[in-house]
Amino acid sequence: MALSKTQTEALIISFRRIFKNKLKFACSAPNAILDNPYIYGYRDFYDNQLQAKIADFCIQLNNNGLLGKITEIHLKSLQDNNKFLTIKGGRIPLEDVVDNAYYSKHRERLREKNILFLDQIILDDKSRLLLWKEILVKAYVPISSQRKEAKWYTDIRLLITSNGVHLHYNITQLFGAFVANVDETRSYNIDKKNRSLIAFYNSQFNSVVIGKIQEIDDNQQLIVKHFHTNMSLCTDTHTYIYQCMDYGCAANAALSMRSPCTFSVNWRYLVPLLTESQFASIQPTNLIDFNIFDIFDFAKKKYNIIQRALTQSHVISLQLQDNIILDLLDPSISRNDLLGELLAVLLALIVVSKNSKVRINTDSLNVITQFEKLKKSKFSQTSHEYFKANNNFLLSILCRIIITLNLHVEMFKVTAHSDDVGNNYVDDLAKKAHLNQDRYIVFRHDASMMKVIPCWNGILIENKLRSFLKNICNYRGLERFINLNRNYKYRQLEVDWTSTFICLNCDINNINNNETSVSSSKTKAQKVHLLIEEIPTIEQMKKSLLNLYDEWMCPICGLHDETFNHVWTCSGHYTIINNIRDKTINHLLTWVLKYNDNIQNFNNLMALDIWDISYDPNNFTFIDLIKGIISISLSELLNSWTTKKNVVEVLIQMR
């Protein structure tokens, strides 16, 4: 059983209240300080449940034993019992063609009738609205539906029809815009090798080209006869075409002696218009029952769909070794060193003949270690082992290749950077390939032996699933904290959040001791109070005791409201804050010189905005440093003087 977000929130409210009370936080303190794992390390109940359920479900789906069979039976049982309702309608949701008032009023009734699409309530030719009795006989409408004309039907008839029956022109035009959807536009079937009349989009000239397939060779190369259109003879419902007889035509590639103008085209981009027999029937008139502008739309959208598929790595290239190969991959996706070494091993094994003995020399101890683990299990992985491993997708493919090709593989460790001739040659090839950013390779999703592989935003999850889900939840928690209104300024500026949270979580009095103590807890709570700008100012007290503190001003100057920023900029505090700033600068210089005494000029440090005692919504000031926010400019300057480890120690001392 899984609890909903609302149920888990109800369970956790009491804990949050106690947590805030013990650490002296006001009720107004944002829950984001708990959601952010880099502040208190709290793990959200709902997120933790989500991680466990998703990981366990993926293991169940891919299990090859009794657990997998039971899961499959349960899923099929749910489908057979109509737990998952499939509404067959169309491509245009009703909410896209009616106003908000109508949809809000009749949404529940439409759902009762299983009506979601405009296509469900209009005639097949998209010309008129179905009569009420015609709607009642539809399979998707429950039998118990009322016989009297419903209010939702009466209202929508007024909205989308011109005379109570026929659809408004703007409604009918919607179908012209959607008809070229990938599900409704036919694709050319290369296996049938039909000599169809086809159209395709020419991106160079932004035009449509019409032709008839004349020949298809064994390599699936299409030779197409070119046809022209005569726009003066075209109508709204017909297009006039005739064969091109010009040997000097720009489209002519002279691929056939049988026709004056022929060319070749990739069959994936084709939109079939007429079969060969249908084409023969129109030859006396040369008129096809298509609008030329619709043909252009069909062809262009088909072209865009195929191009998008290429970009998103959905187009399969040559099939080698039982379909285990290779798609295009977006070059923006980076890969770590181990992944690169493992990929090199896979590509080497793919081209090996069956039943071969293979020796692989590699300087990657990680690859050898992973290989030996798989070898002990006889190159078989359970679903539990798969989702517990990093680089699981490629390791699964490695197992499949070795088993499918019946290979005997041995790996040997060689010394890295030993000036070996073969090693240097391979490194040189790798460097040349690395400079070529145009093509990357990745295995198809079905190359693995797993039945169901989880993805995130269309990207394959190749690391430990539970750890990946945990990271996603952590990043969401961090986002919730950064997106607080009080942190608006820091979304515009460059903040070193890593150093900020390290300083927040480190107690200078307990720097070498990881034990939790009451004093460390209090120190951290004080830091968090500053970070979220919730210290006991008059304005803060007004949130809970307005009757008592109403109209109170700053107790020092008596001129302004005592807000968080005013505490540090109040004229009565100027001398104190100025002394604190000067001492901070002196201590910082002392700590930096401790690690690097060769620094002669500190002008760059003194020129930073962080020493300005004022409030500025567009720049860092000393107030931000008091809150514990570390700017990138400060971190980069300190890193130019000493090591990262020393910089962290300096920032902790300063904080």
Question: Would you write up a description of this structure?
Answer:
- The protein is built from 27 helices and 13 strands.
- The protein has 655 residues and is an alpha+beta fold.
- It folds into five domains: 5-78, no CATH class; 94-175, no CATH class; 197-312, no CATH class; 338-462, 2-Layer Sandwich (Nucleotidyltransferase, domain 5); 484-654, no CATH class.
- Strands 1, 2, 3, 4, 5, 6 and 7 form a seven-stranded antiparallel beta sheet that branches. It has a two-stranded antiparallel sheet with strand order 8-11. A two-stranded parallel sheet has the order 9-10.
- Strand 12 and strand 13 (459-460) form a beta hairpin.
- The radius of gyration is 35 Å and the shape is extended.
- Mean pLDDT is 80; it is low at 177-184 and 311-335.
Care to give the gist of this entry?
The protein has 655 residues and is of the alpha+beta class.
